Amino acid sequence: MIIAGLDVGTSKVTTVIGEISPDGVLDIIGEGTAPSQGLKRGVVVNLERTTEAIRQSLHQAERVAGVRVERVVVGVGGNHLKGVTSHGLAAIRRGHSIAQADVDRAIEQAKAYPFDAELELLHALPLEFKVDGQEGIRDPVGMAGVRLEVDVHLIAAGRGPLANLRRAVEGAGLEVEALVAQPLASGLGALSPEEEHMSVLVLDVGGGTTDIALFREGRLAFSAVLPLGGDHVTQDIAQLLRIPFEEAERVKRKYGAAFPELADPELVLEINQEGGSLGEVPAPELARIIRPRLREILHLSRQAVDEAVGPLEIRVNRVVLTGGGALLRGFDLLARQQYGLPVRLGKPQGVSGLTDVVATPAHATAVGLVRYGSTLPREEERRGRAREKREEAPKGEGLWAKIKEILNNLF
């Protein structure tokens, strides 16, 4: 089974192609990355450039994998994403056990959250169930009770940004198999098996935004998006050193650090200033420019968690940093200092194949999209299930089932 994940970001577009082996292991068989110039803060602002970047990334991945991709699981980013936790309730008839239909009713009620009209629901992720007041239940099916409650984390996205993203993907000749919020995908790609039993904060620091995701025992419990990312660090460097953005990005990637102490005190950087002249900057001075913005990203992320679920140091056991911005030298040390918690860089977990290519925080989201896609029913399975339902229909419903099938074919 071939699955493709498409991570459309502010600074780059990455396609990862995976294959589920017979033993259930995810093999990465293709990867392609192209510069992205058509997005701003995770949102498409130039359709043609975004489509071209998707096409380039896809073709690179297809050449490596030796397969043709027609459908992709697409990551959705940007500060138009909105995550809320909603509560659902379903009454159970006395003498009856809780069935899957009862669970579905409770979740459907939770999905009735009054989002603004311009938002479209992407995910309804159950957190935990409560049966007759008993908390902490993960799967209530088969249990006895008269009152079923559920907390569901809902993620919605702006209809306009979603429509433009779909157009860009379809313009590259692809079909959108699923749209997945990037905070969810980054966690699916970066969390280790051990962390699936913990409370983990995942910060995906991209070019234009930082995705915040709090996972409790492997389930997404809180998500948010900050309109700050690695490009803002680059802009600070460009502004303070009076150099072009492209030169600032080059200097940041090659010499950037979160602490002046991590920079070589003897190293003096030669930089290309605006107008073509050369300038010199001590490496520790570059770190002094970078650190304030990184501290701001960490502070605002903590503030978002504190306000939503309570003090971070109490609610969280570990912090995982992903995204291209996490590659700045010493960023994990700065986060550990600022949060007082264990921090690690989040590389894709539990995959084989091209592990040397995707074993970076910058690939966590794309790998997470492939992993999400592996849980979706394939087209053949969907057709098989529909056929089984028709064959299993009670005799009394046969005529009505035929009528509905005819109407579906007509419309």
UniProtKB/TrEMBL annotation:
Residues in SHS2 domain copies: 3-190
Annotated compartments: Cell membrane
GO terms (BP aspect): cell division
Keyword ATP-binding in annotation: no
Domain of life: Bacteria
Pfam families in the cross-refs: FtsA, SHS2_FTSA
Main location: membrane
Coiled-coil ranges (or none): none
Keywords: Cell cycle, Cell division, Cell membrane, Membrane
Membrane disposition: Peripheral membrane protein
Subunit organization: Self-interacts. Interacts with FtsZ.
UniProt similarity note: Belongs to the FtsA/MreB family.
PANTHER family per UniProt: CELL DIVISION PROTEIN FTSA (PTHR32432:SF4), CELL DIVISION PROTEIN FTSA-RELATED (PTHR32432)
Function summary: Cell division protein that is involved in the assembly of the Z ring. May serve as a membrane anchor for the Z ring.
Name of the featured protein: Cell division protein FtsA
Species this protein is from: Thermus composti
Gene: ftsA
